[in-house]
Design brief:
Elements (H helix, E strand, L loop, with lengths): L2 E8 L7 H19 L6 E8 L5 H13 L5 E4 L3 H14 L2 E4 L12 E3 L4 H15 L3 E7 L2 H16 L3 E8 L7 H10 L3 E5 L2 H17 L4 H4 L2 E3 L4 H7 L8 E4 L8 H13 L8 H20 L4 H7 L4 E4 L2 E5 L6 E2 L3 E5 L5 E6 L31
Helix pairs in contact: 1-11, 2-3, 4-5, 6-7, 7-9, 11-12
């Protein structure tokens, strides 16, 4: 008879970024089904699901309850960096392990977090290099007012300024805010070479629509004249934007549904069977899916949930993910992932225009100054943090 391991799933499937939260939950549930099927693992995974609704106070309360009241050791969850920061003290205090399946801004490492989403050298660094070479160095920044936007803008700003360019404006709005008229007017007045977008959820969808409408009134081809680039835009969100404004946007990610491999095709088919009527797969769904599979392999290798044993095997587990091979780095518990850049199309997907040839070692603090392995090049003008 198989054993059983309980794990928490902490995702906001309601609230201002519910589309992303639902995709993340879907990915985790699909992976749990796969782990529980067949004889590859001597245990089953039993999820305990909680929905914070995008409220930071709810994240903290629910995470604490999972760790203390339910006695869970492993929790897969959180999308925003604010929510991760909110729950992290509880995982460190009660020695739980948060599996964080979201691209993020970096500059963090914890013994109590495994990061299965992209690090800054795997998304913003290749994007900065691409934008500055392809479009120019006059930038406009718009983002949601929290740490994800602040830190990513800091990295992008340094790249732009060091290239001799300028940041024409840097505007922030509260998470969930959808009134962007003044920002759009300023963008049309400034005419930047590109717009770097760190808005999330409903705020981002409203911005894309408002910008496209205003550009059309001004007789501008927005994707050509003022392209918008993001490190978080995914396939299900294109449907939220709507067909009138979803095409022509640049996204830097480690996963797109258009990856042409049998492993990814199999993932997409299984996703649609498990969630009929749901939208396309996404980097968010894949990162949660990968987290469950990596966790299952770690539990099997460790022979149980004992935290020292699980930590000791983390760097030895690998998974052939839909994006390609994924493994956890022993130096910082972030993941080796394969950077890509895509441009959204009118069919609700992305055309991939760049892909690294192999998974890239995660560098959450952007400290590398050597070329011992193939890496996505860090633009030479980015200052190295010592």
């Amino acid at each position: 008879m198989k054993g059983r391991h309980r794990l928490g799933l902490l995702f906001s499937i309601t609230g201002p970024y519910a589309t992303i939260g639902q995709a993340m939950l879907n990915g985790a549930l699909l992976a749990i089904d796969e782990v529980n099927a067949g004889d590859a693992f001597p245990f089953t995974l039993e999820p305990s699901i909680a929905d914070p609704g995008g409220a930071l106070s709810a994240y903290a309360r629910l995470a604490k309850s999972m760790l203390i009241d339910e006695g869970l050791v492993h929790v897969i969850g959180c999308y925003t960096s604010s929510s991760r920061k909110e729950v992290l003290p509880y995982f460190e205090k009660y020695d739980g392990l948060l599996w964080y399946p979201s691209h993020y801004e970096g500059f963090e490492s914890s013994e109590n977090v495994v990061y299965t989403g992209a690090s800054p050298n795997q998304h913003i660094v290749p994007l900065a290099d691409f934008l500055l070479k392809r479009y120019g160095n006059k930038a406009y920044f718009v983002g949601s007012n929290y740490i994800w936007a602040w830190e990513n803008n800091k990295i992008m700003r340094e790249a732009v300024l060091a290239s001799g360019g300028s940041v024409l404006a840097e505007r922030y709005v509260p998470v969930g805010d959808v009134d962007h008229d003044s920002i759009v007017r300023q963008i049309l007045d400034c005419r930047p070479h590109f717009i770097f977008n760190t808005l999330i959820g409903d705020s981002a969808y409203a911005f894309f629509r408002a910008l496209r409408r205003a550009a059309k009134r001004a007789r501008l081809d927005q994707p050509r004249d003022m392209p918008v680039a993001s490190c978080s835009l995914s396939e299900p969100e294109l449907a939220e934007i709507g067909p009138e404004a979803a095409d022509g946007h640049i996204s830097s990610s480690v996963y797109f549904e258009s990856i042409d491999t049998e492993a990814n095709a199999s993932f997409a088919r299984a996703y649609r069977r498990r969630f009929p009527g749901q939208r396309a797969t996404s980097a968010d769904a894949e990162a949660s899916y990968n987290a469950v599979h990596l966790l299952a392999r770690a539990l099997k290798a460790a022979g149980g949930e004992d935290m020292p044993a699980v930590r000791s095997v983390l760097s030895h587990v690998e998974f052939d993910a839909p994006q390609g091979p994924v493994r956890i780095d022993s130096d910082n518990r972030h993941s080796y992932l394969t950077p890509r850049i895509g441009v959204s199309n009118s069919k609700g997907g992305f055309d991939i225009i760049f892909a690294a040839s192999q998974p890239i070692k995660p560098d959450p603090y952007l400290i590398w100054d050597d070329v011992r392995h193939e890496r996505v090049p860090r633009p030479a003008h980015l200052r190295i943090v010592k």
